[in-house]
Structures are given as C-alpha cells and as structure tokens.
Amino acid sequence: MINGEELKELIANPEKAFMADRKSLSDRIEAQRLGTEEVKDAVAKTAKEKGKNLTTDFFDGKWGSLVLDIVDTGNKLKEKLNDAKKVKLFAEYLQKSDDQQLALEKLSDLVTSPYGVAIYSKISSILDSSSADEDLLQILSAYLAKVTDSEDIRKTFSRSKTVLNIISKCSPQALILIKNRQVWPVIPSNRSFAAVSGIVQGVSVAEVASEFAKVNVFSGISISSIQAAIVDMEFNGLAKLIYGNDATPGHDHNKEIMMEELTETGNFLLSELVS
User: Fold this and answer.
1) Residue 228 has pLDDT above 90, yes or no
2) Coil, helix or strand for 141?
3) What is the pLDDT of residues 163-211, one digit of tens each?
C-alpha cells in the first residue's frame, strides 16, 4: 500500500511522482545500450538460428531482466495510481458529509461487510479502468454516500450491483448528460426523416450534439465528447432519439421535433444518480 507522503505527491503531481522510476529505468537501459546495427544483427542472427525460441533466448540475454523490471515497475505504479483514485473518491465522499466521523464509520461498515466489500470491489474496478476525472469521482462519491446510508446493504445489494454495472459501461460524459436529463434540448427538425417504432433513424448524432452543446450545463464539454456520450447512451440502451409534436408552452404544437428520451433502464439509472 502506498504511504501517505507518496500519496500526497502522487495526487498533487503524478508526473513528478513517477519521475524517479522513469529515470531509474532510463539510466539502466542506457547503461546496457547496444548500437543500432548491433541490435539488428543480434536479433536477426538469433531469429535465424533459433526460430521459435527467440523470446526465450531474449530473456536469457542482457535485456531480459530490464523487460521484467519494466513490467514490475508498471504494475507497481498502476497500483499506486489505483490507490490514489480510491483515496480521492473517499475524500470526495467525506467532503459531502455533514458528519465526517459518522461517514467514516459507515465506510468502515461497508468494507467489512461481505455484501459491502463486493460493492466496494465493483467501485474499485470502475476506478481502476478509468481516468477517474472529477466528474466521475463526484458521481461515484454521491452514489457511495447513498449505498452507505442504506440500513441493510444486503437488501440493496442486487440493485447496487445493477447500478454499478450500468455505470461501468458509461463514459463520465454520458453520466453527466443523464444526471441532467431535465435540461435536455429539443432538436428542431427542418427536414424529413425516417422513424421505426417512434425512434428516429438516419439523423446525424453531430446534429443532436450541437443542440446539447448550447445548454449551459453542458457548455464545458466539447461537442465531440457530447457526441460520443450520446452514442454511448444509445448503444447501452439508456436513451433513444424520438420524434413528436412540440408541446412547449407558447410553441407551435403542430410542429414536429426530435429529442433524446431516456429508456426504462436510463430512467432507472437517473433515479439512482439524483436521489
């Protein structure tokens, strides 16, 4: 487990924290450097003479131990990063609590419960496989608070696992869009389009994303990221582009418009993210 000082350095300046490991490996590689032509000759000769045993022979050579060291260093640094993500998540969780001692006690109960540790493991898996940006940390910390507030984690275990499975498939931007469903825009339709069972077909996602980008809440997200988030939602069965008449007060109710609409699964996730 990473120590406190390493962790603070890693969170404050990840590049600097990894510099010593990078320099150590670079120095060792340079110390054993072969000339370019020598490397080519050695590899070609070994490949020709040994054929399928090239990989085995490689590790018997002067570079083998360094390759193993690089793998080992990568694993250790990955472990450190993952620890840092979890600490940042817990810090976010505690900052949202009015009673931090109570919040810590609930967190302790979670990670020492058979059901709770399974939920914690799933949250850890999500963090391990993502960049853990601030948006994702906020969403996960809010959901963590909801889970720890449960009177009986056993009873909410299946529901929590389902929610986390859905979250694990979504990009942070898609989760932000879903969490702010109440401000989704209508998409003006100035041309004909096809629809199957009420779902619009053949409309450019970029056209939809450009309307989302006009909403203040999403102004900090690039159009390309919004576009990817919409594709993400639709691919995962969380939203669909539908059409109908504009029911906005004061608008022409005979005018046809398009808009993204949450599916049943999407509404289920929304209810878990906002309540």
Assistant:
1) yes
2) helix
3) 999 999 999 999 999 999 999 998 877 666 777 777 888 788 999 999 9
Burial class (CB in 10 A: 0-12, 13-18, 19+), 267: middle
Distance CA 217, CA 184 (A): 10
- Look up residue 37 and give its amino acid: E
**Token pair for residue 82?**
């993952």
Interatomic CA distance for residues 238 and 179, integer angstroms: 12
Q: Are 158 and 199 in contact (CB under 8 A)?
A: no
CA distance 182 to 218: 12
- Assigned token pair, 55: 């990989």
pTM (predicted TM-score): 0.74
Residue 35 identity (one-letter amino acid):
G
As a residue count, the chain comes to: 275
3-class state of residue 111 by DSSP: helix
Give pLDDT tens digits for 210-221. 999 999 999 999
Instruction: Region of 174 please: left (phi>0), alpha (psi -120 to 50) or beta.
Output: alpha
